[in-house]
Design a protein that fits this description.
- This protein has a seven-stranded mixed sheet with strand order 3-2-1-4-5-9-8, sandwiched between helices. It has a two-stranded antiparallel sheet with strand order 6-7.
- It has 255 residues and is of the alpha/beta class.
- Strand 2, helix 3 and strand 3 form a beta-alpha-beta unit.
- The chain is globular.
- It is 38% helix and 21% strand.
- The protein has one domain: Vaccinia Virus protein VP39 (Rossmann fold), CATH 3.40.50.
Length: 255
């Protein structure tokens, strides 16, 4: 019985996950488009800058700063015109106080050992009135709740040192993830969160972290309502945002 269920979930899970992730990206992009044109955008954990270019266009910012640790990724980001700066996100970021008016944090905060420090840096680098957009996985998503009820790792907490471990229904369970190989430089430098989800926040947790840091919440929702995807998932997330698999939050630093 479990074998058949495992095969079914592993077939369905990629659709649910990818659809939810793409919808989360679109929600972040919409937050950027709906706000005023920006002077400076900061993308935290910009990688090679491919996704950063999407955020940059949506924000209509004049300049874009990217924060990244892996040197090879920084070089590619710079070739795209991004002011890419090397940064260990667990330490003070190489961005001056109030240097930007919009900051994008996409699928990063769950990798942080110092969650409140991370949120504090988002706050510090923004000008008064500046906006932070945070996209992350949701510990209180139904898929995670279901996994916990069986004594398994929640799906959002299975990435451990480049493996997916602890949940037999994870569609990439116990498989070495080749995409983590580029993070070896960061991992060997002691940035253990580079290849793991360290602290995945639930719906209320993310809101409370941002408010405790001093932010005002402007918009908040979720995407990826398991076991559905596409239009049914989007509809269910609108009526029950607490249990979608991904969270999308827009917050403002008070004037």
């Amino acid at each position: 019985m479990l074998g058949a269920l495992t095969k079914f979930v592993k077939r369905v899970a990629p659709n649910v996950y990818i659809s939810g992730l793409l919808d989360c990206d679109k929600a972040g992009e919409q937050f950027l488009r709906d706000g005023p044109p920006s002077e400076t955008l900061v993308d935290v954990g910009c990688g090679d800058g491919e996704k950063t270019m999407v955020w940059w266009r949506a924000s209509r910012a004049k300049t874009c700063i990217g924060l990244e640790f892996v040197e090879s990724e920084i070089d590619v980001a710079k070739s795209r015109g991004i002011d890419a700066r090397k940064a260990d996100l667990s330490l003070p970021w190489p961005v001056a106080d109030g240097e930007c008016d919009v900051v994008m944090s996409s699928q990063n905060i769950e990798h942080m050992h110092r969650t409140m420090f991370y949120a504090g840096e988002l706050f510090r680098i923004l000008r008064p009135g500046g906006r932070a957009i945070v996209l992350t996985e949701n510990l209180s998503g139904w898929a995670n709740i279901a996994a916990l009820s069986f004594g398994w790792q929640p799906f959002s907490s299975t990435p451990l040192d480049g493996h997916i471990i602890g949940c037999p229904l994870a569609h990439m369970a116990d498989v070495k993830l080749e995409r983590f190989s580029i993070l070896t430089e960061a991992f060997e430098a002691g940035i253990t969160g580079a290849a793991a989800h360290v602290c995945v926040l639930a719906y209320r947790g993310l809101r409370d972290v941002m408010q405790k840091t001093g932010f005002e919440i402007l918009g908040y929702g979720s995407t990826g309502y398991a076991p559905f995807w596409g239009a049914p998932s989007r509809f269910l997330c609108r009526i029950d945002p607490r249990h979608g698999h991904f969270l999308a939050l827009e917050a403002r630093k008070p004037f």
